[in-house]
């Protein structure tokens, strides 16, 4: 155990136990809840754009706005929630965010059934779901860190990553078939039910979660909203990783609405083909998540982080050459497979790095700031690429995003920093 611990420290990442190691009942329920909600999300993959296109007859700019404006406003709404959640028990927050997302999504089929569904309502639902999603992810990261010892974090994150890609393989084809048979609104119902089941699973986990120590009795100040960003920017490893993640995710996601317009519109792909094009390559994510820990054991966390983060940037530019028919479908599958394989390795290593480099009493604020920035940058870039798609055409805009992605490896951390102590002091209240 001693030598393995030293290798993990030197690489900037503690190594997890063997994949077959049990992580406990509470983690099992948390894992099951995650898998259920992830499957529901992928069943509804593309449902909102299709509802906008087929039911509300929206154009490309409005479809892009569902992702951009909804995520941007949702990210702003989530900013005060990070500091608020930090000093509260995380399990009730997780349950509450699941129930909120369930309720918001159910308003869509209800309004559709009554014939009163509008684009504004879709946008508002996107805002609520985006804010709840950021808060849930931040709280779940903090909950996971209190639930497991540090040496198990990489195994846990790899299992989440593996589950994410497994549901990606299964969900879109099933969702595509459901959309073909029942329409996109039916998959929104499935997504809402998945959040309800997730809430029940987290509640069933039971156990006693101690109340976090901290600012009892002190009112939150405006400066407290910036704590998460201060923690990130003060860390020499998290800072470049933060900017790399925000730019990479933003550019990849900005091209997705344009890719949907190109494939489902001009190139004439059917919804099931569109779903298959993103489901089949998810096998690469499943493979990558299984490789993450063996690669870290052999080469060290920092090297795996940098290499996988660099190689993943090489693939998306290939989507600029997308054409119709079987050849075009195979091109999308090939590009997405390479991209997702690299992301399957990168994501659990990156997530574990973030948790290990963040003290337990600031995890929620740090992860919330991270998610808010990622959502906001994605929203901004999606809006910009929506405009570029209208001016230059979807194909040219997709190619431009791919070219810019080639520069993102320059933002990856160049050195593996020493792991900080859990006892590092917080910034002064209000930002000093």
UniProtKB/TrEMBL annotation:
Gene3D superfamilies: MFS general substrate transporter like domains (1.20.1250.20). Pfam families: MFS_1 (PF07690). It is found in: Cell membrane. It comes from the Bacteria. SUPFAM superfamilies: MFS general substrate transporter. It is a multi-pass membrane protein. The chain crosses the membrane at residues 27-51, 63-81, 118-136, 241-265, 271-292, 304-322, 328-346, 367-388, 394-412. Keywords: Cell membrane, Membrane, Transmembrane, Transmembrane helix. This is MFS family permease.
């Amino acid at each position: 155990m001693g030598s393995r611990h030293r290798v993990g420290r030197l690489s900037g990442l503690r190594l997890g136990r063997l994949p077959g190691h049990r992580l406990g009942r509470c983690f099992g329920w948390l894992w099951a809840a995650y898998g259920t909600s992830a499957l529901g999300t992928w069943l509804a993959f593309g449902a909102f754009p299709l509802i906008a296109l087929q039911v509300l007859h929206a154009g490309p700019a409005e479809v892009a706005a569902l992702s951009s404006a909804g995520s941007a406003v949702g990210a702003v709404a989530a900013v005060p929630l990070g500091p608020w959640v930090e000093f509260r028990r995380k399990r009730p927050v997780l349950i509450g965010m699941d129930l909120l997302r369930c309720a918001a999504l159910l308003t869509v089929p209800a309004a559709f059934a009554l014939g009163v569904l509008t684009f504004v309502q879709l946008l508002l639902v996107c805002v609520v779901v985006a804010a709840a999603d950021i808060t849930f992810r931040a709280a779940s990261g903090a909950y996971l860190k209190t639930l497991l010892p540090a040496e198990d974090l990489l195994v846990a994150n790899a299992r989440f990553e593996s589950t994410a890609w497994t549901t990606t393989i299964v969900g879109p084809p099933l969702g595509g078939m459901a959309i073909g048979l029942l329409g996109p609104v039916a998959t929104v119902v499935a997504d809402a039910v998945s959040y309800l089941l997730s809430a029940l699973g987290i509640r069933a986990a039971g156990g006693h979660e101690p109340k976090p120590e901290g600012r009892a009795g002190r009112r939150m100040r405006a400066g407290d909203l910036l704590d998460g960003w201060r923690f990130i920017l003060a860390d020499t490893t998290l800072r470049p990783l933060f900017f790399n993640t925000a730019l990479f995710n933003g550019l990849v996601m900005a091209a997705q609405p344009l890719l949907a317009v190109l494939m489902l519109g001009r190139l004439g792909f059917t919804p099931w083909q569109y779903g298959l094009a993103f489901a089949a390559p998810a096998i690469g994510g499943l493979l990558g998540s299984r490789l993450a820990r063996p690669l870290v054991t052999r080469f060290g966390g920092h090297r795996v982080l940098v290499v996988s983060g660099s190689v993943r940037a090489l693939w998306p530019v290939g989507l600029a050459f997308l054409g119709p028919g079987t050849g075009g479908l195979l091109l999308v599958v090939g590009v997405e497979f390479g991209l997702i394989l690299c992301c399957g390795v990168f994501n659990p290593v990156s997530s574990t790095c973030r948790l290990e480099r963040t003290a337990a009493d600031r995890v929620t604020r740090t992860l919330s700031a991270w998610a808010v920035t990622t959502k906001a940058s994605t929203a901004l870039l999606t809006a910009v690429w929506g405009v570029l798609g209208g001016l230059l055409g979807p194909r040219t805009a997709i190619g431009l995003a791919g070219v810019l992605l080639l520069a993102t490896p320059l933002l990856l951390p160049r050195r593996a920093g020493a792991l900080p102590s859990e006892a590092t002091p917080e910034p002064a209240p209000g930002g000093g």
